[in-house]
Amino acid sequence: MSEHEAKAKEEFEDYASSTEFQDALNKVFEGTGYITIGYYRTDSDSIGQSVLNITTRLEEISGITSSSHVLDLGCGTGRPALDIAVRSGCSVVGLDLAE
User: Which residues are 95's β-sheet partners?
Assistant: First the structure.
């Protein structure tokens, strides 16, 4: 990694862990704890609802049941995996590289 790339990476990591950045994410995703793309079931779905919808839809098409084991790679806060576990009763493991 070049010196320029290393500096840019450091600056991004500093900003990404800042309160300012976290507050902006909470505002955009309506405090859902999700940072993801959305699935709009209706024209009136908000961004917050759309990010909750996508996890529900993933659970539906995956056929996750109480006997399922779910691995969430790049889980971040783990909110989607936890929501699936609560709804279905499955076991989940989340893995993220964030410190």
Answer: 73
CA–CA separation, 95 and 99 (whole Å) = 11
Asked whether 94 and 75 are in contact (CB, 8 A), the reply is yes
In the chain, count H helices and then E strands: 4, 2
Closest CA to 59 of 87, 96, 31: 87
pLDDT tens by residue, 5-21: 888 878 877 877 788 87
3-state class (DSSP) for residue 31: coil
In the chain, the amino acid numbered 85 is A
0.85 surpassed by pTM:
no
As to burial, measured by CB atoms within 10 angstroms (0-12 exposed, 13-18 middle, 19+ buried), residue 59 is: buried
Residue with tokens 């790679």: 73
